[in-house]
Amino acid sequence: MLTNDLDFRLEPRLRDLYEEHKKRSAKIDWGYHEFLPWDKAQDFRRVPWDPSQVTLPASVVTAIETALLTEVNLPWFTSHLAQTFKGSLTVIQDFVHTWTAEEDQHSSLLETYLLITRSVDPKRLHELHKMTVENGWQPDFHTPFETMVYTSMQELATMVFYNNVSKEANKHDPDLGRLLRRLAKDETLHYAFYRDIIKFHLQLEPNYCYYLGHVIKNFQMPGAVMPDFEDRMAIIAKEANYGPLEYFDQVLDVIIDYWDIKNLRPIAPEAEKARLDILKYHDRMKRVKERFMRTQK
Ligand SMILES: [Fe+2]
Ligand SMILES: [Fe+2]
User: Which ligand approaches the C-alpha of residue 194 most closely?
Assistant: First the structure.
């Protein structure tokens, strides 16, 4: 019988992972007040916002705004995780609390940065923020294992996004580059936790392969619910270092390799079929990427 819940036999190992996470995150603990250029702040009532005050290129603003509108949906991510892991391993429920506390300052940091530096129309930003949270987030998977596969990929993709955008941002404002690298560090630790949980499960029971495919093949950033998401991502791909090429090389390829999908040997025929499907999907994406690279030359 294939299960899509987490395996209770792994609880002690996951406890160790969680303790390790807390140690590592305590070492890099930070408050968002430390990363903002407060001396640039001006009262919007005294000095109203005007487009001429924007100094960053539009592509960088789009990237930061897109990241912000992803992070603001934290209440819905937490609610999804809390519901999904209810009755599952308590260590995961504990981690969701720690994770939420860590994620909670990401949107504050990005939003305050945009407001202080006057990089966006504050009224428009407020409306987008509200609209995005009101829309919420409804993923099409609900089981503990699939949710954990998704969060592994999402944390890795977010880490890569921040690191890549920081390279472009740094050229225009080193404060922004530094702030994005800091966010990336948090995402790195989150990614490490989730990805190892999946790895332990696959090692213990390769039949879990059955539940990998749907999430891997349909992965979409959680921000996909915000207005104009596709247009935003097209701009970011072109001018801020994160697009389908980076997704393939730095996310999909990395995770398929880390979980060693090539060498897993599930017993259940449907799990083996799922494993081969993932490898086929990976090959197809690789060919698409190579074709695209050739047309770019
Ligand atoms: Fe985050
Ligand atoms: Fe994260």
Answer: 2
